[in-house]
Specification:
With 240 residues, this protein is an alpha+beta fold. The chain has three domains: 2-40; 55-173, no CATH class; 178-237, no CATH class. It is 38% helix and 17% strand. The protein starts with a helix and ends with a strand.
């Protein structure tokens, strides 16, 4: 019976100590008291993931780094809610509902301008999982949300290998450094009355005009260019 009494006394002492510790701020715990707390509390149910990116994502990231160079900053696994936000003036309930729809989603990659880390475009790597009905609905919603927020969304089919020139053609219109593009594009705009369309430069508010690539990687392709060039080098891709 003696050992039962001893065990009961030990349990009572531990409970007494724990009760005392809960009555004082954690910052005032001694090292011995912290040790008692750690032993009494079960560890949280988490473990480190093996890798941040899947093999397909790592492969594409390598090509993306070669393509972008020093023209943009690359971020991976970015919360959609860190890129998009509900519009103001739609009411508290509507804002919360809109936020809930994007809070648990993320973009595979986001390219940001070097100067201020403003978002240049988002990139989604579409693998076989995107063929399911749920993923298709998710992709359609994300596409619509990005269009509403004027955030370019580039969808790239996942594959075993990528051609750098093809990836460059997709992302070049959104890179911060547009000098390279203007070296390949002719300077004369296509006959077009920009004031009728009302399209203005998002950076300097000058009229945007259509231009076309005469040679190089983008030969024959149209794009929007700021009429204030070379003072403003803003360009935008023309999506169909």
């Amino acid at each position: 019976m003696t050992w039962v009494i001893v065990a009961a006394v030990i349990v009572a002492i531990v409970l007494f100590v724990l009760a005392k510790l809960t009555q004082k701020p954690e910052s005032t715990y001694s090292s011995s008291e912290r040790a008692v707390i750690l032993k009494a509390k079960p560890p949280l149910p988490y473990q480190k993931s093996e890798t941040l990116f899947s093999p397909a994502e790592r492969s594409f990231l390598g090509v993306l780094q070669q393509t972008v160079g020093n023209n943009a900053a690359i971020f991976g696994k970015v919360r959609v809610a860190d890129v998009l936000e509900p519009k103001t003036g739609i009411g508290r309930s509507a804002r919360q509902k809109a936020f809930n729809k994007i809070s648990a989603k993320h973009f595979d990659f986001v390219l940001c301008n070097i100067e201020d880390l403003s978002v240049a475009c988002a990139i989604e790597l579409d693998d076989a999982s995107h063929q399911s009905n749920d993923r298709r609905q998710r992709d359609e919603f994300l596409k619509g949300a990005c269009e509403a927020a004027a955030v370019p969304l580039i969808q790239v089919p996942a594959q075993s290998g990528y051609v750098i020139d093809e990836v460059k053609q997709l992302i070049a219109p959104y890179l911060a450094d547009k000098e390279m593009l203007y070296k390949e594009f002719v300077k004369a705009p296509i006959p077009y009355k920009s004031e009728i369309n009302g399209k203005v430069c998002p950076k300097c508010s000058a009229s945007m005009v259509k231009r076309v690539a005469e040679n190089g990687t983008y030969a024959g392709k149209e794009f929007w260019a700021c009429s204030a060039f070379p003072k403003c080098k803003t360009v935008e891709a023309i999506t169909v």
